[in-house]
Design a protein that fits this description.
It contains 12 helices and 2 strands. Helix content is 56%, strand content 2%. It is mainly α.
Protein backbone atom coordinates (compact mmCIF):
# COMPACT_ATOMS: atom_id res chain seq x y z
CA UNK A 1 0.00 0.00 0.00
CA UNK A 2 1.15 3.52 -0.79
CA UNK A 3 -0.17 6.28 1.47
CA UNK A 4 -0.29 9.65 -0.25
CA UNK A 5 -0.62 12.86 1.75
CA UNK A 6 0.33 16.48 1.87
CA UNK A 7 3.50 17.27 3.79
CA UNK A 8 2.47 17.65 7.42
CA UNK A 9 5.04 20.42 7.89
CA UNK A 10 2.78 22.68 5.82
CA UNK A 11 0.35 23.00 8.74
CA UNK A 12 1.45 24.92 11.82
CA UNK A 13 -1.69 24.26 13.84
CA UNK A 14 -1.79 20.48 13.44
CA UNK A 15 -0.75 18.25 16.34
CA UNK A 16 0.14 14.55 16.68
CA UNK A 17 -3.20 13.67 18.34
CA UNK A 18 -4.93 14.42 15.04
CA UNK A 19 -3.06 11.53 13.43
CA UNK A 20 -4.31 8.89 15.84
CA UNK A 21 -7.29 7.71 13.70
CA UNK A 22 -4.92 7.27 10.75
CA UNK A 23 -2.37 5.40 12.87
CA UNK A 24 -5.07 3.04 14.13
CA UNK A 25 -6.07 2.16 10.56
CA UNK A 26 -2.46 1.73 9.45
CA UNK A 27 -1.68 -0.47 12.45
CA UNK A 28 -4.67 -2.66 11.53
CA UNK A 29 -3.17 -3.02 8.04
CA UNK A 30 -0.07 -4.33 9.85
CA UNK A 31 2.77 -3.72 7.38
CA UNK A 32 5.96 -5.72 7.86
CA UNK A 33 8.10 -3.06 6.14
CA UNK A 34 7.56 0.70 6.19
CA UNK A 35 9.21 3.00 3.67
CA UNK A 36 9.40 6.79 3.68
CA UNK A 37 10.01 9.55 1.18
CA UNK A 38 13.58 10.25 2.20
CA UNK A 39 17.12 9.87 0.92
CA UNK A 40 19.38 7.37 2.66
CA UNK A 41 22.55 8.58 4.30
CA UNK A 42 24.59 6.55 1.84
CA UNK A 43 22.96 8.21 -1.16
CA UNK A 44 23.28 11.63 0.47
CA UNK A 45 27.01 10.99 0.75
CA UNK A 46 27.08 10.15 -2.97
CA UNK A 47 25.05 13.24 -3.86
CA UNK A 48 27.46 15.42 -1.87
CA UNK A 49 30.40 13.95 -3.77
CA UNK A 50 28.70 14.57 -7.14
CA UNK A 51 27.00 17.91 -6.44
CA UNK A 52 28.50 19.35 -9.63
CA UNK A 53 26.32 16.99 -11.69
CA UNK A 54 23.33 16.28 -9.40
CA UNK A 55 22.48 19.89 -8.69
CA UNK A 56 20.81 20.96 -5.46
CA UNK A 57 19.54 17.55 -4.30
CA UNK A 58 22.08 17.31 -1.49
CA UNK A 59 21.56 20.82 -0.15
CA UNK A 60 17.75 20.53 -0.38
CA UNK A 61 17.13 17.03 0.97
CA UNK A 62 20.13 15.93 3.06
CA UNK A 63 21.64 16.81 6.43
CA UNK A 64 25.27 17.70 6.86
CA UNK A 65 26.67 14.65 8.68
CA UNK A 66 29.90 16.27 9.87
CA UNK A 67 28.68 17.01 13.41
CA UNK A 68 27.36 13.48 13.89
CA UNK A 69 30.52 11.98 12.40
CA UNK A 70 32.58 14.01 14.86
CA UNK A 71 30.46 12.88 17.82
CA UNK A 72 30.21 9.19 16.91
CA UNK A 73 33.62 8.78 15.25
CA UNK A 74 31.88 6.88 12.46
CA UNK A 75 31.34 7.70 8.82
CA UNK A 76 27.96 7.09 7.19
CA UNK A 77 29.31 3.95 5.56
CA UNK A 78 30.78 2.61 8.80
CA UNK A 79 27.55 3.25 10.66
CA UNK A 80 25.48 1.45 8.03
CA UNK A 81 27.79 -1.55 8.19
CA UNK A 82 27.46 -1.64 11.99
CA UNK A 83 23.67 -1.44 11.70
CA UNK A 84 23.55 -4.39 9.33
CA UNK A 85 25.82 -6.45 11.58
CA UNK A 86 23.88 -5.44 14.70
CA UNK A 87 20.50 -6.38 13.27
CA UNK A 88 21.79 -9.77 12.10
CA UNK A 89 22.07 -10.85 15.73
CA UNK A 90 19.44 -8.57 17.24
CA UNK A 91 17.78 -10.23 20.26
CA UNK A 92 14.03 -10.58 20.65
CA UNK A 93 14.18 -8.41 23.79
CA UNK A 94 17.11 -6.00 23.49
CA UNK A 95 18.22 -3.98 26.47
CA UNK A 96 17.70 -0.24 26.72
CA UNK A 97 21.44 0.24 26.25
CA UNK A 98 21.31 -1.75 23.01
CA UNK A 99 18.46 0.39 21.71
CA UNK A 100 20.27 3.64 22.59
CA UNK A 101 23.37 2.40 20.78
CA UNK A 102 21.32 1.43 17.71
CA UNK A 103 19.61 4.83 17.74
CA UNK A 104 23.07 6.42 17.77
CA UNK A 105 24.12 4.28 14.79
CA UNK A 106 21.03 5.25 12.82
CA UNK A 107 21.82 8.92 13.43
CA UNK A 108 25.39 8.36 12.28
CA UNK A 109 24.04 6.60 9.19
CA UNK A 110 21.88 9.61 8.29
CA UNK A 111 18.65 7.74 9.10
CA UNK A 112 16.99 9.96 11.69
CA UNK A 113 13.54 8.43 11.28
CA UNK A 114 14.87 4.99 12.24
CA UNK A 115 16.66 6.53 15.22
CA UNK A 116 13.24 7.85 16.22
CA UNK A 117 11.82 4.31 15.99
CA UNK A 118 14.42 3.02 18.44
CA UNK A 119 13.83 5.99 20.76
CA UNK A 120 10.08 5.40 20.82
CA UNK A 121 10.62 1.73 21.62
CA UNK A 122 12.48 2.69 24.78
CA UNK A 123 10.55 3.11 28.04
CA UNK A 124 10.22 6.81 28.83
CA UNK A 125 12.66 6.53 31.74
CA UNK A 126 15.33 5.09 29.41
CA UNK A 127 15.23 7.94 26.90
CA UNK A 128 18.40 9.61 28.09
CA UNK A 129 22.02 10.06 27.07
CA UNK A 130 24.31 7.05 26.97
CA UNK A 131 25.88 4.49 24.61
CA UNK A 132 27.05 7.26 22.30
CA UNK A 133 23.82 9.29 22.46
CA UNK A 134 24.41 12.81 23.76
CA UNK A 135 22.12 15.76 24.48
CA UNK A 136 22.46 17.22 20.99
CA UNK A 137 21.48 13.90 19.42
CA UNK A 138 18.44 13.62 21.68
CA UNK A 139 17.30 17.01 20.42
CA UNK A 140 17.60 15.74 16.83
CA UNK A 141 15.56 12.65 17.63
CA UNK A 142 12.83 14.29 19.67
CA UNK A 143 12.42 17.31 17.34
CA UNK A 144 10.79 19.39 20.07
CA UNK A 145 9.26 22.62 18.82
CA UNK A 146 9.48 21.53 15.18
CA UNK A 147 6.55 21.05 12.84
CA UNK A 148 5.18 17.59 12.31
CA UNK A 149 6.69 15.42 9.62
CA UNK A 150 5.15 12.27 8.15
CA UNK A 151 8.42 10.34 8.37
CA UNK A 152 8.52 10.82 12.15
CA UNK A 153 4.92 11.37 13.21
CA UNK A 154 3.42 8.65 11.02
CA UNK A 155 6.07 6.19 9.81
CA UNK A 156 8.33 6.08 12.87
CA UNK A 157 5.42 6.06 15.33
CA UNK A 158 3.73 3.26 13.38
CA UNK A 159 6.94 1.22 13.16
CA UNK A 160 7.47 1.48 16.92
CA UNK A 161 3.85 0.60 17.59
CA UNK A 162 4.10 -2.52 15.41
CA UNK A 163 7.38 -3.66 16.96
CA UNK A 164 9.52 -2.97 13.89
CA UNK A 165 13.12 -1.87 14.29
CA UNK A 166 13.38 0.71 11.54
CA UNK A 167 11.89 2.41 8.50
CA UNK A 168 13.48 2.54 5.04
CA UNK A 169 14.11 5.75 3.06
CA UNK A 170 13.43 5.10 -0.63
CA UNK A 171 13.46 8.52 -2.33
CA UNK A 172 16.13 7.99 -4.98
CA UNK A 173 17.72 11.14 -6.42
CA UNK A 174 20.66 9.53 -8.17
CA UNK A 175 19.05 10.31 -11.53
CA UNK A 176 19.10 14.05 -10.83
CA UNK A 177 22.12 14.19 -13.11
CA UNK A 178 19.52 14.27 -15.90
CA UNK A 179 18.69 17.85 -14.88
CA UNK A 180 22.01 18.86 -16.38
CA UNK A 181 21.11 17.15 -19.66
CA UNK A 182 17.68 18.70 -20.18
CA UNK A 183 18.92 21.61 -22.33
CA UNK A 184 20.77 19.17 -24.60
CA UNK A 185 17.75 16.87 -24.85
CA UNK A 186 15.43 19.78 -25.63
CA UNK A 187 17.83 21.08 -28.29
CA UNK A 188 17.96 17.65 -29.93
CA UNK A 189 14.16 17.34 -29.90
CA UNK A 190 13.66 20.81 -31.39
CA UNK A 191 16.02 19.96 -34.21
CA UNK A 192 15.08 16.36 -35.00
CA UNK A 193 11.47 15.79 -33.96
CA UNK A 194 9.70 18.04 -36.51
CA UNK A 195 11.16 16.20 -39.54
CA UNK A 196 10.35 12.85 -37.94
CA UNK A 197 6.76 13.88 -37.28
CA UNK A 198 6.38 14.95 -40.88
CA UNK A 199 7.86 11.75 -42.28
CA UNK A 200 5.47 9.75 -44.47
CA UNK A 201 5.92 6.54 -42.48
CA UNK A 202 5.03 8.30 -39.20
CA UNK A 203 1.92 9.81 -40.78
CA UNK A 204 0.84 6.40 -42.04
CA UNK A 205 1.32 4.88 -38.60
CA UNK A 206 -0.79 7.70 -37.11
CA UNK A 207 -3.57 7.17 -39.67
CA UNK A 208 -3.55 3.40 -39.00
CA UNK A 209 -3.79 3.97 -35.27
CA UNK A 210 -6.86 6.18 -35.75
CA UNK A 211 -8.74 3.70 -37.98
CA UNK A 212 -11.63 1.88 -36.37
CA UNK A 213 -11.20 -1.94 -36.20
Amino acid sequence: MTLGSVHLSAFESWNPAMLEPLLVKLAAFSPGVITIEGISGEQCAALKATADSTGSAYSEYCWNPDEIIGATKRTVQQANLEIRETLKSWPASPSAAQRRRLAMLFLAAGDRASAKVQWLRLPQAERHAGEGIDKAMIELIERRGKRMNESYNVAAVLAARLGLERVYPVDDHSSDIMDQLRPLIRSWMDEHLPPLIEAAVIKEISRAAMRKP
